[in-house]
Write a structure and sequence with these properties.
Helices cover 74% and strands 1% of the residues. It has 465 residues and is mostly helical. The chain has 3 domains: 3-158, no CATH class; 161-201; 230-460, MetI-like fold (Orthogonal Bundle). It has a two-stranded antiparallel sheet with strand order 1-2. Helix 1 packs parallel to helix 6 and helix 2 (42-78) packs parallel to helix 7 (162-200).
Length: 465
């Protein structure tokens, strides 16, 4: 029985255990009319029984699925001839890969070839091992579920605090979920950091952080010239900041004004129509924005620049920044609207009662009170802009130019990461490892933005009763 089928079996057993838990609690109480004697509700006994059935079985299924492949491979290798076991690791890996491909065939197709080739014999043995492992996994999980439910049902009594047990289990589940998130973040950081250290063994951090020439092409052979590679990331950082600044100059004021209008001036009918339509912009794929920037906005800016006598590149930072700003407007407006709407109505009413105009109330009362939420919205928008790729690829190009002129072509850190990791790459070359160094710098930048935002929020946070 495969893992997916077994997972549905666990769900089915859990549903049965829910009924058993309720039925057992009613019997302990002495009937439906006597359930008031219980310290917990019957459905709480049922939920506890579901947890006792499903959690151990699911945990065992996860552990078994993660270890099964390695154990079966070791058992299969131990049955291979000594000449095969003594192969080099690379040759043995290819040999085992051939066996796994053959094992996908039916046993009737493998049996005639068993005596002629050891790979067919090993493939048939692999099929048997997988079959035995599947049946053993199914048997153990069903036994574990049944034993857990039976043990729990035997402990039910009138004073049994099922609700406390459920709260304790849920608390540990939440703790485990938090630990998974923390460990995942730690694993990402360590993986990027390890590869970045490998890169900095070939390129000095000073050259990478402060270099102004980005040309990651490296020589394939020792005797080649002209492809030594330059890894100065300043043009990438400058391009990222330039496009992000253009996007934020459009998204922040427009989004904030939209939020003020929707929360303070718009009627409920207009708000119910305008806000969903605005948030549709956030659901449009970024590649569609890229098409719009490359086919509409960029030619328009180029033609407009020529009309004023300016030289505008066909792929300019201004086109990418404007379209990116349009894409980010819903993030700023929606979150800012929620932050402004969350301000207590008593503050607004008190300000108006003191004789302040609506605009003065918004400037002097609502916006300062909602500042932490607005800062969070802007931070989210900045992070979204820094991490955008498709719009920059299609509208701003891939040329690493060090410039602050928005009419020229630039590139960003994320675009270069995609470029460096596209296609078949060797992960021991500086060209490929440079992508991890760029990712590390992107992570440090985002972390710095979060720290600054937290300081701003703590400084201007308002406390209300």
């Amino acid at each position: 029985m495969n893992t997916l089928t077994l997972f549905f079996v666990i769900i089915f057993l859990s549903l049965i255990s829910y009924w058993l838990g309720i039925h057992r609690s009613v019997r302990v109480a002495g009937g439906v009319a006597q359930t008031k004697k219980l310290t917990s509700l019957p459905r709480q006994f049922g939920l506890l029984t579901v947890l006792a059935c499903g959690l151990p079985a699911t945990l065992m299924l996860i552990i078994w699925s993660s270890l099964q492949g390695g154990v079966i491979e070791q058992l299969m290798v131990s049955e291979l001839p000594q000449s095969v076991q003594s192969m080099a690791p690379e040759e043995l890996e290819l040999f085992l890969n051939d066996i796994q491909i053959l094992a996908q065939q039916s046993s009737q197709e493998l049996l005639p070839m068993v005596d002629s080739d050891p790979k067919f014999r090993a493939a048939l043995h692999l099929q048997q091992l997988i079959g035995y492992a599947g049946w053993l996994k199914t048997f153990l999980i069903i036994i574990l579920s049944a034993a857990s439910v039976a043990f729990l049902l035997s402990r039910f009594h009138l004073k049994y605090k099922a609700h406390s047990k459920i709260e304790s289990i849920v608390k540990w589940l939440l703790l485990a979920s938090s630990a998974v998130a923390v460990l995942t973040t730690l694993g990402i950081i360590l993986s990027v950091l390890f590869e970045s250290i490998q890169f900095f063994k070939s390129v000095t951090p000073w050259q990478f952080i402060f270099g102004t020439d980005w040309s990651p092409q490296t020589a394939l052979r020792v005797d080649q010239v002209g492809s030594s590679g330059s890894f100065g990331a300043v043009p990438l950082f400058a391009g990222t900041l330039l496009i992000t600044a253009i996007a934020m100059l459009l998204a922040v004021p427009v989004g904030l004004m939209i939020a003020i209008f929707l929360s303070q001036y718009a009627s409920s009918r207009l708000r119910s129509v305008a806000k969903p339509m605005l948030e549709v912009l956030a659901g449009i794929p970024t590649v569609v924005y890229g098409f719009f920037a490359a086919l509409t906005v960029a030619p328009f800016i180029r033609d407009l620049g020529e009309w004023f006598g300016l030289s505008v590149a066909s792929e300019s930072a201004l086109a990418a920044g404007i379209v990116m700003g349009v894409m980010i407007i819903p993030f700023v407006s929606s979150l800012s609207d929620d932050a402004i709407s969350a301000v207590p109505a008593s503050l607004k009413e008190g300000s108006l009662g003191m004789g302040a105009t609506p605009s003065e109330t918004i400037r002097q009362v609502l916006l300062p009170a909602a500042l932490p939420g607005i800062v969070g919205a802007i931070l989210l928008a900045v992070s979204r802009a820094i991490g955008e790729t498709m719009i920059v690829v299609m509208a701003a190009g891939m040329a690493a130019n060090l410039t602050v002129n928005p009419l020229e072509s630039v590139t960003t850190v994320t675009v270069q990461i995609v470029t460096l990791l596209t296609g078949d790459q060797e992960f021991d070359s500086p060209k490929t490892l440079a992508a991890f160094a760029l990712g590390l710098m992107l992570f440090i930048t985002t972390l710095a933005l979060n720290i600054v935002a937290l300081k701003v929020v703590r400084k201007y946070r308002e406390q209300y009763d």
